[in-house]
């Protein structure tokens, strides 16, 4: 059975000006339940991640400041909103959901977190609405527990996974692949193992051709035993922040390429959802739901 991490705190309202993007975390599982793609048995509610697991990835002082809500105002501005206890708890549950998802993926081939993809958080900083890097923490958890030796992180959010790249820059067991807008946030990029920087307004055919070549290269270079996939839908032409020109059909084909590559090679896959900022919430929800629909077609 495909398992999906979800908790009511995922849809916790942010301060004014940030609430709209949070709606999807409630609407996506609601839509999947309504259409019958999933039922309640597919959903699980994650607990809080343990501190010792966080410290495999994040600096102790940075984590202490998050935990105690003492992060300096400048660093809170870098994150994009003021800290509060519920937002920190939300991040702890998201991270544990991704860790739990690795176990379900190893057992069933694939698992989801209905949130996550907090790839702008580095070892000692938060940024771009990201406090803790859920997939990086989960990758380090797998390595620390000697569950796998070779991991591939496929980041197809429109924004570079700068935090993930920084965390694993000296870790040969984790291969980081980011395909992102060249002139988009973050404006100071880190160096992934494989970066593909895209020009603004790139369309379906060119994007998918680049992905086909570079996804194959990423698999060949990493020979992974486990894959993390960040499936942001801010690549859509309708996205307010993305600057690319992909249709929903191309976004779905992008997902198919990643999922099919993992399935054909027998490599377990955990998916976190990443960004999506289209003006119409329906576009965000439908594009994300396509990722789940594909997974249920391919893996069940």
TrEMBL record:
UniProt keyword Hydrolase present: yes
Keywords: Hydrolase
Pfam families: Hist_deacetyl (PF00850)
BP GO annotations: epigenetic regulation of gene expression
Domain annotation Histone deacetylase: ranges: 24-288
GO molecular function: histone deacetylase activity; hydrolase activity
Database matches in CDD domains: HDAC_classIV
Keyword field contains GTP-binding: no
Family label: Belongs to the histone deacetylase family.
UniProt name for this protein: Histone deacetylase
Species in which this protein is naturally found: Pedobacter agri
């Amino acid at each position: 059975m495909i398992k999906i991490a979800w908790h009511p705190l995922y849809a916790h309202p942010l301060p004014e000006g940030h609430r709209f993007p949070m709606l999807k975390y409630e609407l996506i599982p609601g839509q999947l339940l309504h259409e019958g793609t999933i039922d309640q048995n597919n959903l699980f509610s994650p607990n809080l991640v343990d501190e010792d697991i966080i410290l495999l990835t994040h600096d102790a002082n940075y984590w202490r400041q998050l935990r105690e809500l003492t992060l300096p105002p400048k660093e809170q501005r870098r994150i994009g909103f003021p800290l509060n206890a519920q937002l920190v708890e939300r991040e702890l549950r998201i991270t544990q959901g991704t860790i739990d998802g690795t176990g379900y993926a190893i057992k069933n081939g694939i698992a989801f977190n209905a949130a996550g993809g907090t790839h702008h958080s580095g070892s000692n900083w938060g940024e771009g609405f990201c406090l803790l890097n859920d997939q990086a923490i989960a990758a380090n958890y797998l390595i620390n527990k000697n569950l796998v030796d070779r991991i591939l992180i496929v980041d197809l959010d429109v924004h570079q996974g700068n935090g993930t790249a920084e965390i694993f820059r000296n870790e040969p067991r984790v291969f980081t692949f980011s395909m992102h807008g060249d002139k988009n946030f973050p404006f100071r990029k880190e160096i992934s193992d494989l970066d593909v920087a895209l020009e603004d307004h790139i369309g379906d055919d060119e994007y998918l051709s680049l992905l086909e070549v570079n996804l194959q290269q990423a698999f060949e270079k990493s020979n992974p035993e486990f894959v993390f996939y960040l499936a942001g839908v801010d690549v859509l032409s309708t996205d307010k922040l993305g600057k690319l020109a992909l249709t929903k059909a191309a976004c779905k084909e992008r997902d198919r390429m990643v999922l099919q590559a993992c399935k054909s090679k027998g490599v377990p896959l955990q998916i976190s959802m990443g960004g999506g900022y289209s003006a119409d919430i329906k576009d965000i929800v439908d594009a994300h739901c396509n990722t789940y629909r594909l997974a249920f077609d391919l893996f069940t």
